């Protein structure tokens, strides 16, 4: 089965602005984000990425632009990895949203949260996980693929891979341009990295053929 690299888009003009950008058009990378995106290819040097899938939003497409050109890859745009549809919350200031009754639900009981005029976080997880499983079935054994998407989408996929209820997904941190890695097997997924912003990519390489899908009793030794 395949290894998935979950790449959050690099820092955008909306990150740090105090505004919930959501699916607002025209939100691209800021200067810091452009520098982060330029480093993606170097971080993935030596990793045999066969497929790149990307959210349709500008900030995600810009994050992988240089990487796909260097690798000669044709990215697939998939709406199932789009940002959460925050509905009427889109474009509003976070300081205002923290006063909404729904804010506590989003923080403490996200599986029940449905954004007015938008979608629920449970729907987000369902569509994203279904997409991951779809690509995993299509790809051959030991292949590596990458999806560039959004923070809450990645957290929802990771929660599923970790066997966590969606209500625990707010405990996962996913920074801009961070990489999280999940290796899927016939019996279960293995989470190899979460929120990695460094350059060590050894954990992204396909496993040796003799590796099985059983967890190591007593913990991994780190040997490959």
What shape does the CA trace take?
globular
- How many DSSP E strands? 6
Order of helices and strands: EHHEHEHHHEHEE
Report the average pLDDT across residues: 90
What is the fold named in CATH at topology level? Answer: Rossmann fold
Structural class: alpha/beta
Helix run count: 7
**Gyration radius over CA:** 17 Å
Tell me the name of the CATH homologous superfamily. Answer: Phosphoglycerate mutase-like
Unreliable runs: none
Q: What is the total domain count?
A: 1
Report the biggest beta sheet as strand number plus sense, adding barrel if it closes.
6 strands, mixed
Strand content: 15-25%
What distance separates the N and C termini?
17 Å
CATH architecture call: 3-Layer(aba) Sandwich
Q: Helix coverage percent of residues?
A: 25-40%
Report what the structure shows.
Helix 1 runs parallel beside helix 3 and helix 6 crosses helix 7. The model has no long low-confidence stretch (mean pLDDT 90). A hairpin with a 4-residue loop joins strand 5 and strand 6. The chain is built from seven helices and six strands. It has a six-stranded mixed sheet. The chain has 224 residues and is α/β, with parallel strands linked by helices. The two termini are 17 Å apart. It comes from Saccharopolyspora rectivirgula.
């Amino acid at each position: 089965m395949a290894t998935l690299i979950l790449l959050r888009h690099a820092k955008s003009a909306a990150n740090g602005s105090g505004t919930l950008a959501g699916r607002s058009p025209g939100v691209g990378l800021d200067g810091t984000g452009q520098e982060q995106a330029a480093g993606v290819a170097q971080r993935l040097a030596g990793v045999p990425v066969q497929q790149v899938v990307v959210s349709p939003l500008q900030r995600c497409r810009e994050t992988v632009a240089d990487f796909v050109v260097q690798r000669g890859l044709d990215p697939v745009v998939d709406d199932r990895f789009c940002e959460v549809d925050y509905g009427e919350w889109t474009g509003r200031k976070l300081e205002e949203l923290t006063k909404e009754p729904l804010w506590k639900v989003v923080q403490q009981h996200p599986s029940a949260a449905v954004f007015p005029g938008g979608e629920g976080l449970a729907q987000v997880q369902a569509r994203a996980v279904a997409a991951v499983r779809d690509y995993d079935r299509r790809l051959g054994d030991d292949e590596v693929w990458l999806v560039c998407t959004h923070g809450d989408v990645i957290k929802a996929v990771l929660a599923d891979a970790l066997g966590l209820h969606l209500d625990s997904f707010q405990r996962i941190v996913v920074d801009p341009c961070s990489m999280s890695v999940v290796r899927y097997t016939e019996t279960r997924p293995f989470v190899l990295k979460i929120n990695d912003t460094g350059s060590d990519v050894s954990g992204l390489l396909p496993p040796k053929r003799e590796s099985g899908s059983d967890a190591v009793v007593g913990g991994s030794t780190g040997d490959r």
